[in-house]
Amino acid sequence: MPLKATLKQALGSLASIDFLEKLTEYSLRQKAPSVSLAASEEVAAPGTTWVEVADGGRRKLWRKTFDRIGARDILLLEFGVFKGDSMREFVNLNTSPDSRFFGFDSFEGLPEVWRGTSREHFSVHGQFPDIADSRVRFVKGWFNKTLEPMLDELAELAKTRQVIVHFDADLYSSSLYLLFTLYRHFPDYVFIFDEFDGHETRALYNFVQATGAGTEFFHHVLWQGCPTSVSGRLTAG
């Protein structure tokens, strides 16, 4: 057997799928132009601990991204709501009475295990966050059951609003499904990815491969050299 084939078989047998996925994601960020952050602005986090970087850094990134959009009406679609921390921030960052905010989540956890995180880890036992803003609407259920029936309604709202999509689904499968499904109705929108050091990188790369869509990155936050949150724009190919 040729040496190259032998090495591939050995690596595939010895290394975990999780490790190989992480290796692929790291390589994509270094070499693939469609997910390269080289031209985007690094957002300085307000500290050096994980919480200060991941949470404080992403809040600064959100503000910078919303500042680029300005005071115009928006349609914000969030996939992965959990306890509503990001949604609370978003409604405060855009106070236009004609803006609309949709939060999609099972509110029961993840559809599959995610890198050592159990399916129940993000469960809030079906309870919606308490956000007293009439512009906000929560949609309960798995994305592949709830999104498509709402696409026509969302597309109508998007006609007079800037679309922003907050991807916080964590999983490759969920992120890839969302990218393809949204593209049919929203070929141009501002995006925010919350976990870009993992599955989301690979999902965006494969989506761009298949569709020829364009990406422009605005801002990113780094933790130990790897991106956590990123923002930018997706355009039709």
Question: How many individual β-strands?
Answer: 8
Succession of helices and strands: HHEHEHEEHHEHEHEE
Number of domains: 1
Distance between the termini: 42 Å
Q: Could you give me the name of the CATH homologous superfamily?
A: Vaccinia Virus protein VP39
Share of residues in helices: 25-40%
Tell me the β content: 15-25%
Descriptive account of the structure:
This protein has 237 residues and is α/β, with parallel strands linked by helices. It has a single domain (3-235), classed as Vaccinia Virus protein VP39 (Rossmann fold, 3-Layer(aba) Sandwich), CATH 3.40.50.150. Helix content is 39%, strand content 21%. It is built from eight helices and eight strands. An eight-stranded mixed β-sheet has the order 1-7-8-6-5-2-3-4, sandwiched between helices. A hairpin with a 2-residue loop joins strand 7 (214-223) and strand 8. Helix 2 crosses helix 8, helix 3 runs parallel beside helix 4 and helix 7 runs parallel beside helix 8 (199-211). The longest helix is centred in the first third of the chain and has 20 residues, at 50-69. It starts with a helix and ends with a strand.
